[in-house]
Amino acid sequence: MTQPTDIRGEHLPTALFLAASNVPVLPLRGGKVPFGNCGRCANNACGGRPNMKTPGPCACPHPCHGWAAATTDPNVVNAPTWAWAWRDAAAVAYHPGGAGLTVVDLDNAEAIAWARANLPATRTVPTTRGEHWIYRGAMQSANAVRPGVDIKSTMAYARWLGPGASTITALPDVVRALAVKEPIAVRPAAVTVPAPVGGGECPHRTPAYLDRGIAMAEQRITEASSAVHATVYRAFLAVLSTHGRCGCLTEAHTVRLFTAAQAKGESARHCTDAWTNALTRLGLSHV
Q: 79-114: b or e for each residue (b if 16 or more CB lie within 10 Å)?
């Protein structure tokens, strides 16, 4: 292993050791956050996402995309283009999911007590205020799954605080279950669906026709893997364009649509706004 020069900072040897162990690493600045975009990628010109949750198509070796910049390539870690970051780094971070790991971040004594009573023992690493419990296996990351407990795995980074103690055990189902959001039973704000314009006929040849339209909209929302906001709006627009002028839509139908949207993480307010905007777009809001 090449001995790094002093100008690269005290954290580079640790980063190179982790990279050699197949643990993707990246530097953190003060405040435990990734470095900002590099000059070449200023204002996300390369296509990187501002929220740093999804890497853009940029092949730039600078640490400019949060967790997505984490790498195991020693040539990248030790590259001159990263020298400025390691020189100014306050800590080393790693991408747990990229290493096939999950970190249960316990932020206080109460969270630690809960973990000891409910989770299988595994490797633990002391933190400033609590502990990291590390399991073998990757999963969806999630914040605030319960008071003082975050899960860091895929599309997330964790600060490297040392190897810890005890043996790493397999990721248990009880931890996976913490990240699963249960659908929220929603009673949306009352929405008045206008009567047909100009005496138009009802297009619902049978009740099943309307129900099938609602089911298709629910499926479209549920299967959205990205752009959920836009998908919800388009689904609402499609339902209202076909079923919004005859007065057949009931509160039960809107509850089904709102519930599907909220199960994907949408707020009740966004659902109401999307519904209102769709009504306006179709000219139904003032009929």
A: eeebbbbbbebeebbbbbbbbebbbbbbbeeebbeb
